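Re: Re: token formats

Sure, here are both.
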Amino acid sequence: MKMERRSAEGPVISGFSGRGFRVDENVYEGLLITPERADSWSPPPITELSEADIAPLLALNPQPEFLLLGTGATLVRPPLAFTRALGERGIGVEAMDSRAAARAWGVLRAELRWVAGALYPLD
């Protein structure tokens, strides 16, 4: 699937390829994305997700308004300890399936929102 590129600064998810996401000239099966960069990500099972797994996103300055968490082919609730830990940092967690998270990324970045994304592969 190809998504329409909108006016936004930084990396834009332009489509899907196999189990992954097309960002500029690269495809990432697991993806950590910020307004500044996109990186490959090998996420743990969702039940084991912790702050340490998204450390590069937490280092963003200023910190993101919230985290778009793409949980794979379907919505899976992240561990409560994970959402609480981010909440204590003032970062909300918006969990959704990874395709929806990729589309939301484009909309939010077109609005120049300062968000971060952690997207599990499309299974």
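Second one below.
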Amino acid sequence: MISAPSAALGLVYRWTDHTINPTGEARAILRCVLRDLGLPSDVISDGALAVSELVANAHEHACGPYEVRMRSAAGRYICEIHDGDPMLPTHLYTACVSPWQGRTGERALDEPLIERGRGLRIVHELAKGQWGFRFTEQGTKAAWIVLAMASSAS
């Protein structure tokens, strides 16, 4: 199910385990929402990519239903990705460290070619460390990411 992009704050997108392309849909809708908020194109691109990584992780590793919500708090635009799983991802620290940091030899050369496990590193870099997870009142979790300062809007 898709919410109207004009509803910039609050529920932005909702999907289930049976949705065919939630990552692409969430990215397209979020681009519209961020554009409606008047954010610069680089913030829109980086935010849509980072959120799509979190959407993909939720869809692959957690149970639904799922929601993408936007809110404004303390002068910042924050996007949250809610899922039905109460468990936080494991290995959060190592997910944010460069995959080849401190490695030498063949293993260091092979690691940039690994196709899985880079999503949270991408989120961390794009969000400049301003992201994380929180428990909800419903006993589940939400990933959150600061997309921009509210004053970034034109």
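Confidence is low (pLDDT under 50) at residues 1-7, 97-110. The beta strands are 10-15, 66-73, 76-83, 131-135, 141-149.
- S.
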